[in-house]
Write a structure and sequence with these properties.
- The complex is a heterodimer.
- Helix content of chain A is 23%, strand content 32%.
- Chain A is α+β, with helices and mostly antiparallel strands.
- In chain A, strands 3, 4, 7, 12, 18, 19, 20, 21 and 22 form a nine-stranded antiparallel β-sheet that branches. In chain A, strands 25-24-13-16-27-26 form a six-stranded mixed β-sheet. In chain A, strands 6-5-10-11 form a four-stranded antiparallel β-sheet.
- In chain A, helix 2 packs across helix 3 (34-40) and helix 3 (34-40) packs across helix 5.
- Chain A is globular, with a radius of gyration of 29 Å.
- The longest helix of chain B is centred in the middle third of the chain and has 10 residues, at 51-60.
- In chain B, the strands form three sheets. A four-stranded antiparallel β-sheet of chain B has the order 2-3-1-4, covered by helices on one side. In chain B, strands 5-8 form a two-stranded antiparallel sheet.
- Chain B is an alpha+beta fold.
- In chain B, helix 1 (16-24) crosses helix 2.
- In chain B, a hairpin with a 5-residue loop joins strand 6 (94-96) and strand 7 (102-104).
- The two termini of chain B are 17 Å apart.
- Chain B is elongated and about 50 Å long.
- Helices cover 18% and strands 29% of the residues of chain B.
- The mean pLDDT of chain B is 88.
- Chain B has helices at 16-24, 51-60, 114-118; strands spanning 2-8, 29-36, 39-45, 64-67, 72-74, 94-96, 102-104, 124-126.
- The chains are: A alpha+beta, B alpha+beta.
- At the A-B interface, strand 3, strand 21, strand 27 and helix 7 of A face helix 3 of B.
- The complex binds iron/sulfur cluster (2 copies).
- Residues 71-72, 88-91, 93, 109-115 of chain B line the site of one iron/sulfur cluster.
Chain lengths: 494, 130
């Protein structure tokens, strides 16, 4: 028998609702079966605590004695956006301090506000007849603000990609420090405790859903930016009153050589209205699959190295291309669980009711890439390209280089696949040794460019490896063109 | 046990560790070594029974020696128990406990410093006292 939300809320008010967290729910379903679990359990609580860059606070400072229409405003040297009304501003979590750089940002201001600390407020203006004041400097605390309303455009990713690094350099990313040669892999998200993973079809979560936000109560106000439900990457836009929140569940973080972000604690209660919802809330880490991406590839569509479940990720080791790679979580499962339990506590005490969504989150949207005009390698490469077959003599290669007046000669297989590359310098050097075939003197580890790669990325490769040409290869590693520094510089002058 | 050894600039060029190994006939494992213009800084692992002997030999050659008890400091107020440090550490100092909070096995730390910047919450510090 399905339950109604009214029944569940009545039980909550009476203090006898059965509330369990999402981890417990999967055990209950396993033990008692779906029908019994759906009947017995009224609410399943979820939780997540991780880096949520797309967060910030709307602030209203009140009017100064001589009024000012703020044109630019800073809090502890962190600039907030004030292209709205005179004394309203939006402080973004990732905005960096103009004096402290990576060591302090919007997230730290939010924390300092929560801790009751004094914040230096600075503003400038052009002055108007109604707002004559042109500059202002004062100290404020959270208490003195009329409003401090957290509005986070994108929080609570359903799941997230796993990051690793195949290159030979350490990378510093928003996914943390990635050690070279698959030295580690990092992931984010609470897995089976994650709110949207427990309601993947958005049957109970929608606009108006009351949630736990940063230790206080908040609301879902719609789908988050980059919401991508069909790919299993749904997101939430949320709001709540910062004045009711706690520094325990909103923590600034610094990702080394990347920047500042805010860790946000979110918990969503899911009413168990029927067996179908019970089944979805019984999800386990082993059921949640995500992709391992190579972050050393500087492209939007990074190659997927493998698929992996949260269970594997949480085991501490995963295999990537035959290598055992240690994993690390960036978000805190410990605090995610604490949030789910805290929310359970609120529901059991009867002071938090479940709200029916006014509207469901959209399911029919896609996350499109940016529209931009990119010059691609295929548009500017030199083609056709002169190559030489493996097994040819060095003399033949020398002849070709002189005859065609070129500096680089890719060595290819019968199928035209890249084997190596020769430069005129290699040939001159070969004269000194007793070499006969191109294969003996060519460079085998060839840096190549791809047809669809941007010219910018190819130019970076040339610079990074201090070379002057890149063979261009297609998907099958066949040589189809050449990119050279001299051709690129001509392009710029044109 | 782990010991931290400092070499002032003037003894950096001498094979102090090799001589100490020869004379003490003890197995000394070099876990980490850095040298710059101010001198050398090394973390070594030595058998506990030879501690006094080795320390005396090192000191007689101009090195300063200190015991490493808590090589790193974890600020529990700041730590959120994420686990970002776990996969960074080359010697597996960090682990999850049963309740998914972080345990620190100080014994294993070689003070490489990798975890310091990798912690998003600035909860880790290397202990520097000599
Ligand atoms: S990375 Fe920092 S915050 Fe995370 S568990 Fe390690 S010490 Fe704690
Ligand atoms: S300094 Fe940090 S990363 Fe290095 S060994 Fe010690 S705990 Fe591990």
């Amino acid at each position: 028998m399905p339950k109604t939300l009214e029944e569940i809320n009545r039980k909550i008010k009476e203090g006898n609702a059965v509330v369990v967290d999402a981890e417990e729910m999967s055990l209950i379903v396993e033990e008692k079966g779906l029908a019994k679990a759906a009947k017995e359990v009224d609410v399943v609580t979820t939780g997540t605590f991780g880096a949520m860059c797309s967060s910030g606070v709307f602030l209203n400072f009140g009017h100064s004695e001589e009024p000012i229409k703020m044109q630019r405003v800073w809090l502890n040297d962190v600039e907030a956006y004030t292209g709205i009304a005179a004394v309203d501003a939006y402080l973004g979590a990732t905005q960096l301090s103009e004096t402290k750089g990576f060591d302090y940002g919007g997230a730290h201001v939010i924390e300092d506000l929560l801790l009751g600390k004094e914040i230096e407020l600075r503003a400038v203006s052009y002055g108007t007849d109604c707002y004559p004041k042109k500059s202002l400097k004062t100290k404020i605390t959270l208490e003195y603000l009329n409003q401090a309303i957290m509005v986070n455009p994108r929080n609570a990713y359903q799941r997230y990609n796993v990051a690793t690094n195949s290159s030979d350099k350490t990378l510093y990313t928003y996914m943390g420090t990635l050690l070279p040669n698959f030295g580690n892999a990092t992931f984010s998200g609470a897995g089976a405790l994650s709110p949207l993973c427990n309601d993947p079809d958005y049957e109970t979560i929608g606009i108006g859903t009351k949630i736990f936000l940063g230790g206080g109560k908040g609301y879902v106000i719609g789908e988050g930016t980059q919401h991508n439900p069909k790919a299993g990457f749904g997101t939430l836009m949320v709001k709540g009153n910062l004045k009711e929140m706690s520094a325990e569940y909103l923590k600034p973080a610094i990702f080394h050589k990347y920047g500042v972000t805010l860790y946000v604690g979110i918990g969503v209660p899911i009413p168990v209205l029927n067996e179908s919802i019970a089944r979805k809330t019984a999800i386990k880490d082993a059921d949640i699959v995500t992709n391992v991406l190579d972050y050393s590839v500087p492209k939007r569509d990074r190659p997927i190295l493998r698929k992996v479940t949260y269970e594997e990720l949480k085991s501490g080791l995963i295999e990537i291309q035959g290598k055992e790679v240690p994993t690390s979580s960036l978000s805190s499962y410990f605090i995610a669980k604490k949030i789910a339990l805290e929310l359970k506590n609120w529901l059991e005490k009867g002071n938090f009711l479940i709200s029916a969504p006014l509207e469901k989150l959209p399911y029919d949207v896609v996350f499109k890439p940016m529209k931009e005009e990119i010059m691609r390698v295929k548009d500017v490469m030199l083609a056709p390209v002169i190559t030489i077959k493996g097994g040819s003599s060095i003399r033949e290669a020398a002849n070709l280089i002189i005859e065609k007046n070129i500096d680089h000669l890719p060595v290819v297989s019968k199928e035209n696949k890249i084997l190596g590359i020769l430069t005129s310098w290699d040939i001159s050097k070969a004269v000194l040794g007793k070499y006969r075939f191109v294969d003996e003197i060519m460079t085998e580890k060839v840096i190549t460019a791809e047809l669809e790669e941007s010219v910018e990325s190819a130019a970076k490769k040339l610079q990074e490896h201090n070379i002057s040409a890149l063979p261009v290869v297609d998907k099958e590693q066949k040589v189809v063109g050449m990119i050279t520094t001299s051709a690129l510089s001509k392009l710029l002058i044109k | 046990m782990k010991v931290r050894v400092y070499f002032p600039g003037k003894v950096v060029n001498e094979p102090v560790i090799a001589q100490t190994i020869l004379e003490s006939k003890s197995l000394i494992n070099i876990l980490r070594a850095t040298v710059d213009e101010h001198g050398g800084d090394m973390i070594i692992d030595i058998p506990e029974k030879d501690y006094t002997k080795i320390v005396n030999l090192l000191r007689s050659r101009g090195a300063s020696v200190s015991m490493l008890e808590k090589p790193i400091i974890l600020n529990e107020e700041k730590c959120i128990n994420c686990g970002a440090c776990i996969s960074i550490c080359p010697t597996k100092v960090f682990n999850y406990k049963e309740d998914k909070s972080i345990s620190v096995d100080y014994e294993r730390c070689i003070q490489c410093g990798l975890c310091i910047n990798a912690c998003p919450h600035q909860a880790l510090m290397v202990h520097r006292k000599c």
